[in-house]
Amino acid sequence: MFRIAVLPGDGIGPEIVPEAVKVLRACSGLFGLDFTFTEAPVGGAAIELTGHPLPEETLALCRGSDAIILGAIGGPRWDHLPLERRPEAAALLPLRKELGLFANLRPVELYEALLDASPLKQEVIAGTDILVVRELTGGLYFGEKRREQIPGGERAIDTLVYTSSEIERIGRLAFEAARSRRKLLHSIDKANVLESSRLWREVMERLQKEYPDIELKHMYVDNAAMQLVNWPKQFDVIVTENMFGDILTDQASVLTGSIGMLASASIGGQVALYEPAHGSAPDIAARNEANPLATILSAGLMLRFSFNHEAAARAIEEAVARVLADGYRTRELMQPGCRELGTAEMGDRVVEALLKLKEGSL
Ligand code: IPM
Ligand code: MG
Whole-model pTM? Predict the structure, then answer.
């Protein structure tokens, strides 16, 4: 039996997470997998209930589970709070840190049916298939932060810290990932300016000697941002530090249609966390408009990485591809000739497609 912690969170979280659960339940029937789901509050929702965005019970539930599915965290209602009580800084980041989730995998995959939803020309985007490996528990996000009064004003300080062992473990994971793909690894840094990037580059160079079958290329982050829109198919696996990874994956997600399609897996600890790469989108919350596919695809990654069930993971990806090929879209992806679906209806279609696929394969 697999125990899954369900953390809907804020904004559109409570709408998209049930759709992923729906799909996981369908998989349990189809593939004979036994799941239990236990829900817990996190983020702003947890502040309202308990006064803290990451209650002890929620963290304990996560630690005691086999995998976690999370919606999104944060919203304007809690933006005024000091950093130590803000949902993002006081729930999501500690959750990642406490669970030792140092690697965030974000697969940027192009669905055939979404070719013309990309802001890029078809010939530029066609064939794009990138895995971004983002370091998730170091760098600016976790370095010392402080404010100081200085004559005539204030000074704010964030520190960008990396140790060689932190770089090595994420580097190793990325080299391994490249090995099971097209054997090309781009390491993105800003070594022309930052000392942490110089160490990053040195460690990657050292590691490369252990992976002679993988081609390692270094690229400055500003150039990488340009190359991503100019010629995305030159990339296979990208490895980069926390903040660069945060920024580049938002950019990369839209290349393939919408950030509503970008799934993610945060791994490296005992229990892994699966969440869409997008935020809580408070502007469209409670309108049954949000795209649940990134969360559904994250559930697929859970089946692949946590439960080692490649067939079920593939089935979810194929079901999503079918639904899109049949012309169904959530609002942000609507195009002439397509049919608009709400969040829940999109989840239903994916389940339907799963059932059909499975029938077809019998
Ligand atoms: C992400 C998000 C988070 C991050 C925010 C909500 C703190 O943007 O997962 O990419 O910056 O890591
Ligand atoms: Mg982000």
Answer: 0.96
